[in-house]
């Protein structure tokens, strides 16, 4: 029985040995699995780390490129603003030099306007600089915030240094701009003071000129306007009714203390004359411009002497812009006339026998009625001529020619040949009795629009003055 017990003990020991070896195998396998898992985790972390480092490197390179671009932009801004400020200084120096040539108050006023414009430009420049500096500060702050996302300590230090350098640079640049602007403002203040001194000098000079200015004599039979006796002032001259101005109508006072021109005189106009139109010509006429008012009625009277039969013989024509036949009297062999290009028929009234004749024409627009008088007697009349129309003012009045355009367009065959005297024009229809009275002798009527004395000194071409007049 004892051997059998030994074998059972050995069998139990053998079973225990086999159990212990199996456990060890399992433990080794688990250990190897854990190590393999750790290796895989390490490899994964290593690859991820490399990718993260590559991304961070790309971000850092992009950040450095952005800083380099910003540096170039700030350098360019500094250069451009420096050039503008240098140009402003040049303008200020040029303006300062120009003030030495100013001698009149008007030039000073224009210079002060230029200074105001320059000041506005400075204000605009200052505002633009402030806006650009604010933009730079915003960009720098944005870049500073971006660095908080960086986790690589080896690259953070240089980035912080670069950020601080760019953050302080705009302030130093701003101080430089302020210094330059202070210099410009100081230059403007000095220029303003120089203007003030120049103004005082000019005022003093003007006062001295006024003290030595020679007074002009008053016109006999005339009068003058606006004599102030200082540099740049002018004096104009006018004549009394019945006189004409012989000489310049205006004189100017010069810096050297003298007046331009010579002193005019007023000469008496004798109405005892006639005008001779010697032959056919488009160059002989009398013209008065821009004195005629608008009319609803008119009377014109004159003395004429002609023996011409073949010519058209225009006595008087009045034209306005756009209408050359506003008022027309012509053809002494059988007088015809026109108002606003409305023509009358031939009147069969003639005055071309080589003797003096008194001719009057009257018209009013209410009924369009008209009358033609010869030597105080009614020769022809009618109604409905240019009824309701107006003779327009501001045109040209011509004796001796027919205007085919305003103030011109004369033709030889339409010219008047003979003598003409005592031409007068009224702005109303005068009475038949007054017309008869005037026909008894010349120089007895005076128009309220134009008088015979008005025409003597408006002659053109070969028109001659003949004295004595019509009845001699």
UniProtKB/TrEMBL annotation:
Protein name as catalogued: Pentraxin (PTX) domain-containing protein
Residue stretches making up the Pentraxin (PTX) domain: 271-472
Regions crossing the membrane: 24-47
GO molecular function: metal ion binding
Keyword Phosphoprotein: no
UniProt-listed PANTHER family: LAMININ G DOMAIN-CONTAINING PROTEIN (PTHR19277:SF161), PENTRAXIN (PTHR19277)
Cofactors that this protein relies on: Ca(2+)
Disulfide bonds: 301-360
InterPro entries found in the cross-reference section: ConA-like_dom_sf, Neuronal_Pentraxin_Related, PTX_dom, Sushi/SCR/CCP_sf, Sushi_SCR_CCP_dom
Keyword entries, A-Z: Calcium, Disulfide bond, Glycoprotein, Membrane, Metal-binding, Transmembrane, Transmembrane helix
């Amino acid at each position: 029985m004892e051997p059998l017990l030994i074998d059972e003990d050995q069998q139990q020991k053998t079973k225990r040995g086999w159990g212990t070896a199996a456990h060890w195998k399992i433990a080794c396998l688990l250990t190897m699995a854990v190590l393999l898992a750790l290796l895989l985790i390490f490899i994964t972390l290593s690859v991820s780390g490399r990718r993260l480092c590559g991304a961070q490197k790309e971000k850092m390179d992009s950040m450095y490129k952005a800083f380099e671009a910003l540096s170039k932009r700030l350098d360019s801004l500094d250069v451009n603003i420096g050039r503008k400020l240098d140009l402003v200084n040049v303008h200020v120096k040029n303006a300062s030099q120009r003030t030495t040539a100013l001698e009149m108050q008007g030039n000073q006023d224009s210079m002060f306007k230029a200074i105001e414009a320059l000041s506005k430009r400075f204000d605009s420049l200052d505002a633009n600089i402030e806006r650009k500096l604010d933009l730079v500060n915003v960009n720098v702050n944005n870049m500073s915030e971006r660095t908080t996302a960086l986790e690589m300590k080896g690259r953070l230090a240089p980035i912080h240094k670069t950020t601080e350098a760019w953050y302080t640079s705009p302030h130093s640049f701003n101080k430089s701009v302020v210094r330059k602007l202070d210099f410009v403002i100081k230059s403007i203040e000095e220029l303003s003071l120089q203007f003030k001194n120049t103004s005082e000098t000019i005022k003093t000079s003007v006062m001295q000129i006024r003290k030595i200015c020679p007074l002009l004599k008053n016109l006999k039979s005339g009068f003058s306007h606006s004599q102030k006796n200082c540099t740049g002032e002018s004096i104009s001259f006018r004549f009394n009714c019945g006189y004409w101005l012989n000489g310049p109508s205006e004189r100017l006072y010069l810096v050297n203390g003298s007046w331009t021109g010579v002193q005019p005189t007023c000469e008496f106009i004798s109405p005892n004359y006639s005008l001779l139109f010697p032959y056919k010509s488009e160059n002989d006429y009398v013209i008065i411009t821009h004195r005629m008012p608008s009319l609803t009625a008119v009377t014109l009277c004159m003395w004429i002497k002609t023996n011409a039969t073949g010519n058209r013989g225009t006595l008087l024509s009045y034209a306005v812009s756009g209408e050359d036949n506003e008022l027309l009297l012509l053809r002494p062999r059988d007088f015809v006339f026109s108002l606003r290009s409305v023509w009358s028929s031939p009147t069969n009234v003639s005055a071309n026998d080589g003797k003096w004749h008194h001719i009057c024409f009257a018209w009013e627009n209410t009924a369009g009625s008209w009358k033609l008088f010869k030597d105080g007697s009614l020769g022809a009349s009618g109604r409905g001529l240019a009824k309701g129309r107006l003779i327009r003012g501001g045109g040209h009045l011509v004796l001796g020619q027919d205007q085919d355009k305003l103030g011109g367009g004369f033709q030889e065959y339409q010219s008047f040949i003979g003598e003409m005297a005592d031409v007068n024009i009224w702005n109303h229809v005068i009475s038949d009795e007054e017309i008869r009275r005037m026909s008894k002798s010349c120089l007895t009527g005076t128009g309220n629009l134009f008088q015979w004395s008005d025409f003597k000194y408006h002659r053109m071409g070969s028109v001659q003055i003949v004295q004595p007049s019509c009845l001699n």
